[in-house]
Protein 1
Amino acid sequence: MSVLLLLLAASVSSQALAQAAECGKKRGRSASALDEMTWKKLNDVYEDVGEELYDLAFEKLVKMNKRIYDDYEKAVVTQALAQVEWARENYDSALTYFETAVEIDALPDLAHFSLMYQIAQLYYMKERYDEALNRLALWMCKVPPEKITAESYILKASIYAQKKDWRNVVEAADTAISMSDDPKEGWYQLKLASHFELEQFPMAARTLETIIQNWPDRKDYWVQLSQIYFKLKRYDEALSIMALAYRRNMLDKQMDITYLSNLYSNNNVPYKAADVLQKGIEDGIVEPDTKHWTMTADAWFSAEEMEKALYAYAQAGKYSDDGEIDLRRAYILVDMERWDAAAAAVNAALEKGGFNERKTGDAYVIQGMSEFNLGNYDRARTAWNQATNYPRAKKSAQQWLNHMREERARKS
């Protein structure tokens, strides 16, 4: 090991020993009496503070401090200087005075320990996180155990969060929560964020379950819990939590509605997938565009709700610049032998165009079938002749042309 490393190790070791020695010292000081003159001057200063005359109060305290030699009185005045500087938002100066007041070591326990805690808070505010942790640890080991609060562990967790030490954040937050009869929402949020950072998704799910039990009106928690369940492949629970949020009228964003619809589809509940999405469109939450109407139509189709599927495809077609959706609607109408509607759909598809050669040929075949079944033989012939120009549709079109000739010959 190099000399430098040895010196560094020795320095760290000596600091740890000094901290341990300081921690081991117990304290038992009670309040002393101020002399009458000092008390009157301090009372005058506190009146200035009450009127927010901080500059004047500070000036008076500095003068007092120069003329005091008693340790207790000096610690009291130094503490007052720190508080005035805090009020003036001169945090560096406040920190110096707080440190000095603690070093004098003459204040009663309650005030002394309170200053130690404020020093830890100030280091945290100044983003000096290692010093904040050291001061907080010293405070925790010096005060009586019953004086250590849940809030102090949350301060500890917050400092660790700034250091991105997520495991220690969880440990400190868990301690705070276990100590309190009324844990705050923010404490759980700190714990939850740490679980996410550590990719501890089962623990994040359990934390969110607790959060929702206590604060059920925040939609974000429901959505987060569902997404974690989905990530953990707990698909039924992912759907259940979002469905419950939906019934509570909490889902007010497009991404919420489409996510729920997709969950229903993934869980083989296409009817609900379509119903939720269509209602979202009609309520103005989901954008009424080709994509969303097509998703709705596909779900209705999977649910074998053909009338609803046709309606949704028709809506999708209105927003589409090409004929893809109208052609899909035409296929369904042909299967249902609704020839008038099929002819109208395929005509709209061909008028818009925009699909590939294969689908164009198929569209002409379908157009011919629709016109043939409506008794419009000339239109049927024209359509099938057009279809013969497309290699993949040519054979089918010729078969239909032959069938029409045979049919007309049979009837003549």
Protein 2
Amino acid sequence: MSDDEQLLCVACKKPVEVSKDQYEIFEQMHWLCFHLLFEHEGDPDEACGDPSCPWGRIDALEQNLRSLGIDPDQV
């Protein structure tokens, strides 16, 4: 595969750019597509137990904003 060849995610069919160095590790998918298909437990719109789950990170950021008196919906 040449350096200029576009890698497409087999799950969502969009180009893989950020994690292209791990394209084969994630079975030719974006990390997030791989996570949601193979690692994420429960509702895909809610945080799972994986510390790298984006929804868990978003929840933590929202909690921190609230503790500072900032409405996360206004940020």
